[in-house]
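Quick one, tokens below. Sequence please?
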């Protein structure tokens, strides 16, 4: 669709020939447009099939060349100032008032925040640290956070993080659990700990399956109206809370006119001292009364028609959830996080492992389907390594190594030095592409490079660490010129610039 129309978007629609090659595409079409396009394409293909065949050939060639890249590399090439240049350029796009990037919509970008935290730590960069804090504050105090039920919506449609697109995704919340855990380590801010536990409670209550997998997403709509499940009028609030309503309304910006289309999106106000002075009560009493009121509102909300649940269980997104739980355990040492991480990892290893040693992508109502893609392998291998690092259960490390070997055998492209998105055991569809740029979810190749580097260190295998280093070196210019979309690559580059050291603790009581 990018090739045909110059830009992509969502929803995404592509029309293909019977052999699967695309001939036309676009984003949103109204019903009448959709019908006209279908009729036009059907009639055109019937009357002029050669023209459509030619179009498919041209588009297929374009797709096959879409991710071509210069893979030449000098043997002695190293990192120099790419990250500094990338960061200096990025700073021009920091939103100094609300955090995140300038403008709207605003997306939580977990890989970006994790890289920036690492950079701020290594280089003591106060401007970057302030940007991180401003962004996390935007998430905490914006309508994008579900005050009553926990978790975060997909993105904010405005610059102030107030009005979300109300869809809630597993992968966002899984990664944000990691982000806030790491931010707590960096800053010691207790609010970040609260957010981690909110996300955990939300995921356990709303996403966890009986098998200990996690469902994918909740729709934005209920009863055909976006956000209806989440928004309130002041009158509704007063009926539910009675005499507690004034405090609650002041705390969460509820008014007669509303803050969104005549309704109110609940969002926390940052100044708690204002509430103490206004209502002549102590800080602890404010917190206790608001906690009780939130519970009443939450219970009332549970009676509403719920948004639709996408209840497929995806390997990659569940792996991100394991990594989020591991980050939370690593930070707070609460066994609830580790216990769930182990249960979900065991579920994936038991139910989504194929007979040939590979993985399936999808578990749905007890059945597996679709051979796993590069992101499934990369994220699950990463999760298993991280799980080993906090549990010291060697099984998970050896499972990670076995999956990494399989992944390398069936996905690695010797010509470019990167991993294809699909396995060589799958039927080729138009083109075997490579996922290189980091977005809301980090690219499969950047995660794979992190994995190879870690496995190389843990197994003392220089071939693995060298492969990871060379993959990252090939992304130098991307990091220099557009670090925003190569942040996870930049994070690994920091490891090669600031070589980490190892500590081995050896004794009968080593774990303790």
């Amino acid at each position: 669709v990018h090739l045909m129309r110059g830009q992509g978007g969502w929803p995404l629609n592509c029309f293909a020939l019977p052999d699967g090659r695309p001939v036309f595409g676009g984003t949103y079409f109204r019903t009448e447009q959709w019908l006209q396009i279908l009729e036009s394409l059907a009639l055109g293909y019937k009357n002029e099939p050669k023209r459509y065949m030619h179009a498919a050939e041209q588009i297929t060639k374009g797709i096959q060349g879409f991710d071509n890249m210069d893979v030449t590399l000098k043997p002695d090439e190293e990192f120099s100032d790419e990250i500094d240049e990338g960061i200096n350029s990025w700073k021009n796009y920091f939103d100094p008032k609300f955090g995140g990037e300038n403008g709207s919509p605003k997306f939580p970008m977990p890989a970006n925040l994790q890289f920036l935290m690492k950079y701020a730590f290594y280089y003591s960069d106060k401007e970057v640290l302030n940007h991180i804090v401003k962004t996390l504050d935007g998430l905490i105090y914006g309508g994008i956070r579900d005050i009553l039920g926990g978790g975060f919506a997909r993105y904010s449609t405005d610059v102030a993080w107030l009005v979300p697109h109300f869809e809630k995704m597993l992968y966002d919340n899984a990664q944000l659990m990691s982000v806030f855990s790491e931010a707590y380590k960096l800053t010691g801010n207790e609010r970040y700990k609260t957010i981690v536990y909110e996300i955990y409670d939300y995921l356990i209550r709303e996403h966890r399956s009986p098998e200990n997998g996690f469902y994918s997403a909740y729709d934005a709509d209920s009863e055909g109206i976006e956000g209806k499940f989440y928004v309130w009028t002041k009158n509704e609030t007063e009926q539910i809370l009675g005499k507690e309503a004034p405090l609650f309304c002041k705390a969460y910006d509820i008014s007669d006119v509303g803050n969104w289309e005549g309704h109110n999106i609940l969002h926390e106000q940052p100044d708690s001292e204002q509430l103490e002075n206004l209502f002549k009560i102590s800080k602890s009493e404010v917190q206790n009364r608001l906690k009780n009121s939130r519970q009443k509102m939450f219970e009332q909300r549970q009676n509403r028609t719920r948004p639709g649940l996408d209840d497929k269980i995806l390997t990659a997104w569940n792996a991100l959830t394991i990594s989020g739980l591991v980050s939370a355990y690593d930070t707070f040492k609460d066994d609830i996080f580790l216990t769930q991480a182990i249960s979900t990892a065991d579920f994936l290893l038991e139910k989504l492992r194929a007979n040939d040693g590979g993985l399936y992508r999808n578990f749905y109502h007890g059945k597996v389907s679709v051979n796993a893609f590069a992101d499934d392998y990369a994220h699950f291998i990463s999760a298993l390594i991280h799980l080993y690092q906090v549990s010291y259960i060697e099984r998970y490390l050896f499972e990670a190594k076995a999956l990494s070997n399989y992944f390398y055998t069936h996905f690695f492209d010797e010509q470019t030095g990167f991993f294809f998105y699909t396995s060589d055991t799958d039927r080729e569809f138009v083109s075997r592409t490579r996922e290189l740029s980091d977005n809301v979810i980090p690219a499969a190749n950047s995660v794979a490079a992190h994995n190879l580097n870690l496995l190389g260190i843990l197994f003392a295998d220089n071939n693995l660490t060298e492969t990871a280093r060379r993959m990252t070196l090939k992304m130098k210019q991307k990091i220099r010129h557009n670090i925003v979309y190569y942040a996870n690559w930049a994070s690994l580059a920091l490891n090669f610039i600031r070589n980490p050291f190892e500590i081995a603790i050896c004794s009968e009581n080593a774990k303790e």
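DSSP finds 20 helices and 14 strands in the chain. The first strand starts at residue 13 and ends at 16.
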